[in-house]
Amino acid sequence: MGLIIDTNVFIDAENGRLELGAIPVLQTEPVFIAAITVSELLAGVKLAKTPEEYMHRHTYAESILNTIPVLDFDTEVARTYAELYAQALGQQRRSNLNVHDLQIAATALVQGYSILTTNVDDFKGVPGVRLISPYALQGNTIHEEQARYTPSS
């Protein structure tokens, strides 16, 4: 199994709400980030309000990008994303549709990986994705949520 870390996990860690070293699954599973997470991290750097905040965010983002492998948004992921996006639009989920989260979900589905996220609600209704909340981890037990995903032919 592998694990894709959602951007909000890094944000919570950066803001002191979460200790990455205390999450057992990060020590036992191969970890990755989706390509869109690179964009989200770097956008956060660009949105810094002060030079000090910019330097802090830049250093933090680069430390992540230099240590965690990035999974590409390739053709297979794009096809899965298109299907998820079309399903979401067809189900009238526009009000809570987040295209970045759908890209992370598509990447996880193609790779067969789970997503570590502090916002499991962001992925509610996305079929087939396995979610792990770092706040729900108890010792070495992983609490996962999973829905069924069946790609159309």
From TrEMBL:
CDD domains: PIN_RfVapC1-like. Keywords: Hydrolase, Magnesium, Metal-binding, Nuclease, Toxin, Toxin-antitoxin system. Its cofactor is Mg(2+). Pfam families: PIN. It is an enzyme of class 3 (hydrolase). Residues 4-126 form the PIN domain. Mg(2+) binds at D6, D101. Its EC number is 3.1.-.-. One of its GO terms (molecular function) is hydrolase activity. InterPro entries: PIN-like_dom_sf (IPR029060), PIN_dom (IPR002716), Type_II_TA_system_RNase (IPR050556), VapC_family (IPR022907). PANTHER family: RIBONUCLEASE VAPC2. Toxic component of a toxin-antitoxin (TA) system. An RNase. HAMAP family: VapC_Nob1. Belongs to the PINc/VapC protein family. This is Ribonuclease VapC.
